[in-house]
Amino acid sequence: MLLAVGSVLAADGVSGRRAALVIGNSAYEHLARLPNATNDADRIRDVLERANFEVTLGKDLDKKGLEETILGFLRTLNDGDVALFYYSGHAVQVGGHNFMLPVDATLATSYDLEVQAYNMSSLLEYMRETSSLQIAILDACRDNPFANNSYYVGQAKVAVEGKKGLASVAPQDGTLIVYSTAPDRVALDGTQGLSPFTGTFAEYALKPNVEVRKLLSDIRAEVIKRTDGRQTPWDASSLTSSFFFVTRQNLLIIEDMREVRVPPSPKEVALRISPPITSGNAELTISFTKLPDQGTLWLGDQQLSLDSKVSADRIEEVMFKPASADMTGDEVRYSVTTDSGRSASGIVRVVVDAQAVAQAPVKPALTIQQGDEPKPAAPEQAKPILVAMASDIGTGFAAMPEEIVRSSAPTGWLRLEKRDPETQVAVDGQIVSEGDLIKAEDIAKLRIRPSLKLVSASDTDVPVAETVAMAPQSGKADTSTDSMEVKPIPLPADKTAAQPPVRTVVLMPAVKTVAPAPITINVAVSVNECDTLAAEPLDVQAVADGKLPNDIDVAKALVACKAAVDQHPEVARFKYQYARALYAEGNFKEALTELNAASDAGHVRASYLLGRLYQFGAAVERDPSRAIPLFETGAKRGDPYSQYALGKALVNGTGTKADVERGMALAERAAESGHTYAMNLLGSEYYLGRYVKKDYARALRLFQESANRDDVYGMVNLGVLYRDGAGVEKDQARATELFEQARAKGHPSAGRLLGYMAVQNGNANTEILLNWYRESAERGDAWGGYFAAKLLKDNPALQRDSGEVVRLLALSASQDTKDVSADAKSDLGKIGSSDVAKEVQLALQRSGQDVGDIDGKLGARTRDAAAAVLGTDAPRDSRALLIALLRKEWIESRPRLDMLGS
């Protein structure tokens, strides 16, 4: 009989998941260098990985690197239980906010903070939306790095008060904020390779079963001692539950009762007491609490007493020596105690049996055997089990292959001996740590999840000879019970060297043996082809860098994403990416179905795109108000696209009551994450001064940042400033260069702006001008369509056909753009009804409808055809009908909605 003292928690789903972001910035380019910050980050990474965190590490990050690293961290959260953020580097407080500074920060002007720093409160809010408990550990503020005396934070220009250190922020429920030093004080960088706080934290954090608030109290006392009172760590907590960095499983498993049958004889016999098993490799003390009445106990040539202590790995060697051959039976009792104080007691009964064979081998009850066939009791003869699996990133916890469960299942207890830091291991819905024990019969419940972090190109360059066999598409795995069989993974035709990285998990028999037989599980990790083909940039739930809509290889993406959805119907990300491919193909009906499914399953970027469709009336009836709650969902999760779209809607009052202050704040959050459209929105408001005070210098800084990130709107906006000399010296050549760059990259209005500038300068070529305007009209620029129509009226010989002016005006009117679409509609009203009706018939014909002769007469047949194309009752007015048809035709040309205003 086995007695297990303690228990393993179980839960529905997988509980206990932890994700951490660790950043260390040392090599500052314009501020004082911090030699220990990257060392601090490395040390904390090691500690947190041992505490079962999935760690996203960033060192010496510039602003773009900081944005990318934070995005990578947000991708790993995915509704986990604990989210932790550690930062070592320069940080400043301005206006009650704490900002971390990347290594390329200058803080030279009042406008630099909003584009060069990252507000830590933003990160905490995103963590709260995706985890039940949040911890921030800030070992920052070693010096005051200000190069300026005031900075813009939102709409306010805040004077720096000369305070050093960080501001104390009141945490919301479920949050713990730890500061390496007291508020408004400077932390020490340290002289021993680590900061005093981080060095102490690393020493204390892995102490098992110490609640975090007690742990911090101990750390505080030690840092005060080590710094002679110059530094006092600080924390602010609103935790509503206990948290332990390390919770030792605390299992102690012994054979609580065994019976040894021996023949009548005065010879000594082996009791064969099975070695106790404990989780975490805890130290064990074994002592006897009752000695035999009719004999003595021996270990080698040493007689044991009640004061004797026996090592756990030698307990099998204890012998019982009867006092005489007349023994009728006896009993021995012993106690096992762990270093944490847990104890259990066992009994060995010696029964005299005339039928027993002297020194008959007695198999210890806890010996691990593996395989179907009976094996000799000696554990050194057991053979290793090797398992090769394959798993795509972001597809959840992969189950053990059926082969290992069915045909090679071990018995007894196993210990999780090794876990690659890039993996998480769960059993029966609970995360397990290195040192934890697993019942062998529970191996069928074992699950392995590769890290949600991106697999970099360098990480896939694994030599073929080092790669173990990968499971085939059926999900089956290769196993071997003799030795490691190295097999190359079959390569796609277009790849000759890249191999997926392999993550390793090792289970060992919990009973120590001379030749242990491990179970080694190698998981070949890859990115699903759907992710590489159809993920979207800055998607907080993606696992690949992403592609812009017009860069999707539609044919390949459709096949890959359909397969991914079929194989992983529970993964919302694949539904969204499949919807992107369907939309790019022009299959709006199916795209909408997948979008709704992905949005309902919690994919925030799907909610964002649905909102954009409602704003534009693409594939759905136009209703901007329905976009707002969809944007709200994504904005809370830290999706910069949603933050930007919601911010813009609030600033303009599109689909919701205008709220300029909140809208601008949301745009600032998106810009902080590197979303260039948000930078353009902010810059445009400061340039135009519609809702905020004009500030050309601030607009210039935002547009420069956007253009430097290769954003076409940033280029155009910056070009406008150079064209007009707003906040910068007037430079027509620079403006032209920026407009040309943006036009080449697909900006809707860049061609029209080039034309406008040429007209203003008096050097316009009519045909070139017309081509620019036409191109802008086709890309969705209402002004381009209107200008092209006016130009053709004056130069009718340049028309492609007699109806081009009508189409351009209708297309301009269909964009519903302020200050121009109404004029286009008015001009369209001055054109003869017959000419408009002919364009209606031609539009229907292009849509595949049979409308008979193109005669400019709209009868019932034509209107039925229009209703079939539009999917609703056709407008009675021919001009309204043409506008609706051209709008639908333009949408079906699959324009870049992300590049257009709402």
UniProtKB/TrEMBL annotation:
SUPFAM superfamilies: Caspase-like (SSF52129), HCP-like (SSF81901). Residues 16-145 form the Caspase family p20 domain. Transmembrane segments: none annotated. GO terms for molecular function: cysteine-type endopeptidase activity. PROSITE patterns: CASPASE_P20. Signal peptide: none annotated. It comes from the Bacteria. InterPro entries: Caspase-like_dom_sf (IPR029030), Caspase-related_regulators (IPR052039), Pept_C14_caspase (IPR011600), Pept_C14_p20 (IPR001309), Sel1-like (IPR006597), TPR-like_helical_dom_sf (IPR011990). It holds the Pfam family Sel1. GO terms for biological process: proteolysis. This is TPR repeat protein. It comes from Aminobacter aganoensis.
